[in-house]
Amino acid sequence: MAKRVGMEVAIAVAEAVGMCNVDVAAVYPITPQSHIAEHLSDIVADGRTDTEYVTVESEHSAISVVIGASGTGARTYTATSSQGLMLMHEILPIVSAMRLPICMAVANRAVSGPLNILNDHSDIMPQRDAGWIVMFTENGQEAIDLSIQSFKIAEDPEVMLPVAVNIDGFQLTHMVEPVEFPDQKAVSRFIPARKPYAMLHPDTPVTMGAFAMSDIYHEMMMVKDEVLKNSKKTILKVWDEWAKTFGRRYKPVETYRADDAEVLLVTMGSMGETAEVAIDELRKKKVSVGLVKIRLWRPFPFDEFRHVVRKAKLLIVTDRAVSFGGPGGPVHAEIKAALYHDKHRPAVHDYIIGLGGRDVRVSDFVTMVERAIKDRRKSAVKDYEFYGVRE
Amino acid sequence: MDQVANFDLFASRLADRSEYFSAGHRACQGCGEALAVRLICKALGEETVIANATGCMEIISSMYPTTAWGLPWIHVAFENAAAVGSGVEAGLKALRRKGRIPNREVKTVAMAGDGGTMDIGLQALSGAMERGHNLLFICLDNEAYMNTGIQRSSGTPMGASTTTSPAGKLSYGQKTWKKNMPEIMVAHRVPYVATVCPSYPIDLLNKVKKAKEVKGPAYIHCFSVCPTGWRAASELTIALGRLVVETGIFPLFEVEDGKYRFTVKPDTLRPVKDYLKHQGRFRHLTPDVIEMIQQGVYHEYNKLQDKVDNLHAWSELRKKPHAR
Ligand SMILES: Cc1ncc(C[n+]2csc(CCOP(=O)(O)OP(=O)(O)O)c2C)c(N)n1
């Protein structure tokens, strides 16, 4: 068993990436991602990884540089947050359309305006439909593990899609946590050097990024959808292999005390651990409540999700972003879409919480659950509400 | 000049017979840009990877599932050719170092129109040149956003009527001077900066070959006549490319290590009117605006002459012990 060390999570992510034989990295600093940019450049400067680190002048160029590099067959990495991710937005769907296995960390942060550097999910949600594999992490160990796994998933010949690993800004990136690093040799065996399908090289003069009109664009988008959905098979396979090699098992939807629960709280990201404590407290008060944590956001694990909520009567969904003028939060909308055809449809109540770094404590989760249960008894379940608004 | 005069005699020996940008693409009749790209590819040769910005050249050459490209080629978006090229260069470098591709020199070249270079792509270009990638960037300057319908850019010349700088009762068209891109590149300490025009094919081939040999950033600004966008007869493409040089509007020069040199030098400059009169985009111009353009051209030309006469190569400056 590897030794446990105490380490800031952003630093740990950079260390993990440094173990992955990345050929080209292009990272532009932005709070709260900057420690990844800085520490990765330290690792390169110390010669601990053989990586071309391109100090780009913007996130738009960061993602563009890794596209060019990925096109040559290189293993590539970038990381960003908030405004940086918004600046990349134009390019993200091109990455997936070109089937380039770029891996990226997103240190989730609220988007402007007003400018705010703290945590929520409003940066990643506008990228939902870019055709990327999108995952959420709950603690430092998961951030390390998923960062390493992401290369294997992305570069699998059945997948060849980019992967975004979400790590809640500050709440997770800046925590010092006990983590353990897998053995370098085992990591190198787990992810050998990339074997690209096509390379930009004079020996194979391919045309990448051709332009396509209505006669074929439609079909190309269908293929992208199918490939992304299919990627779940590979993701599960990689997680299985990870469990066998490194002992930690990952699932698209994780649960906590959920099997017999009538009420299920749903979270995504680092708040899961706080919510677990709230579940324990509520269980002590004999409330039949459990927790569902969504790890895989794209492709959305519809089957797994339906399975874990099949016996629940009430779902209390938490969202850390807003679909303004729409159905509340994006997670809520997704879940309702997942359940529409089910004969057994639980009531769904959506709380929008923790925007722009607003703290959500154990007591808040307790209050949310108790209030939603009361509302449901009165048949007063609201579609969504902003929780904890200051009067 | 002799080489140009004897082009027919020498051309076959100077230009690679291989075609890397093949016929059958969708460029307009008389497209100066397509001609330039064809020549540029000949000068670059096989050991090249191209990153192309969105724009005319990308659209006319890569209609899926066809391609005009015999060289490895990538297109991503409008403003990021320099960044994509930076990534290609970094990728090739890393893979070669790690023994995953053959140990050969491969040149990375990024290309964009005037919009993709001097407007929306300027930041990415500045970043790439400042970082010092082994990257040749070529601006294919047809003096407007042609691909999207002849809208003005910062490369559109004074007085030109475009669809967003139209001539009208209150306007004589474009009201700004053309942005001086080569100077901006020299200011980045780019070791090789040159201007070319396919009407001077030998000059173009020589400069592209020179730029290819630079182990670092290089910039070539290619004047590309656009008969469609300029409302000129398509058979005048070559003639207009000559006239723009003979009038001094677009001088052919190179800047090597900070040292300026004219590569084609007319004995006397022809009046700008000789060039303007063939083009619909200038047809509305009154004598006073033409005179203003004439004075502007003299001004810029004299500035350039001054640099040719007085500036030293940076490597020579470094030898002097004290700042002057
Ligand atoms: C971000 C973005 N903005 C606008 C466009 C639309 N667009 C595509 S090409 C182009 C103009 C290209 O002009 P230029 O770079 O001068 O090249 P040309 O087509 O003239 O060769 C524009 C405005 C785009 N594709 N992307």
Q: Percent of residues of chain B in helical segments?
A: 40-55%
Q: In what order do the strands lie side by side in the largest sheet of chain B? A: 2-1-3-4-8-7-9-10
Mean pLDDT of chain B: 95
Helix content of chain A: 25-40%
Largest sheet of chain B: 8 strands, mixed
Q: What's the name of the CATH homologous superfamily of the largest domain in chain A?
A: Thiamin diphosphate (ThDP)-binding fold, Pyr/PP domains
Topology:
The complex is a heterodimer of chains A (391) and B (324).
Chain A: E1 4-8, H1 9-18, E2 24-26, H2 34-45, E3 52-54, H3 59-72, E4 76-80, H4 82-88, H5 92-97, E5 103-108, E6 133-136, H6 140-155, E7 163-168, E8 176-180, H7 184-190, E9 207-208, H8 217-246, E10 253-256, E11 263-267, H9 271-284, E12 289-294, E13 296-298, H10 302-308, E14 314-319, H11 330-339, E15 347-352, H12 362-377, E16 384-386
Parallel strand pairs in A: 2-3, 2-4, 4-5, 5-7, 6-7, 11-12, 11-14, 14-15, 15-16
Antiparallel strand pairs in A: 1-8, 6-13, 10-12
Chain B: H1 2-5, H2 7-14, H3 32-44, E1 48-52, H4 56-61, E2 73-75, H5 81-97, E3 107-113, H6 114-119, H7 122-131, E4 135-141, E5 167-168, E6 171-172, H8 181-186, E7 192-196, H9 201-213, E8 218-223, H10 227-230, H11 237-246, E9 252-256, E10 259-264, H12 273-276, H13 287-310, H14 314-319
Parallel strand pairs in B: 1-2, 1-3, 3-4, 4-8, 7-8
Antiparallel strand pairs in B: 5-6, 7-9, 9-10
The structure holds thiamine diphosphate.
Task: Describe the protein's architecture and organization.
The complex is a heterodimer of chains A (391) and B (324). By secondary structure, chain A is an alpha/beta fold. Chain A has 12 helices and 16 strands. Chain A has 2 domains: 243 residues, Rossmann fold; 134 residues, Rossmann fold (3-Layer(aba) Sandwich), CATH 3.40.50. Helix content of chain A is 38%, strand content 18%. In chain A, helix 6 links the parallel strand 6 and strand 7. In chain A, helix 1 packs across helix 2. The model of chain A has no long low-confidence stretch (mean pLDDT 97). By secondary structure, chain B is an alpha/beta fold. Chain B has a single domain, classed as Rossmann fold (3-Layer(aba) Sandwich), CATH 3.40.50. In chain B, 40% of the residues lie in helices and 15% in strands. Chain B contains 14 helices and 10 strands. In chain B, a hairpin with a 2-residue loop joins strand 9 and strand 10. Chain B starts with a helix and ends in a 5-residue tail after the last helix. In chain B, 52% of the residues are buried. The mean pLDDT of chain B is 95. The site of thiamine diphosphate has 19 residues of chain B, from helix 4, strand 3 and helix 6.
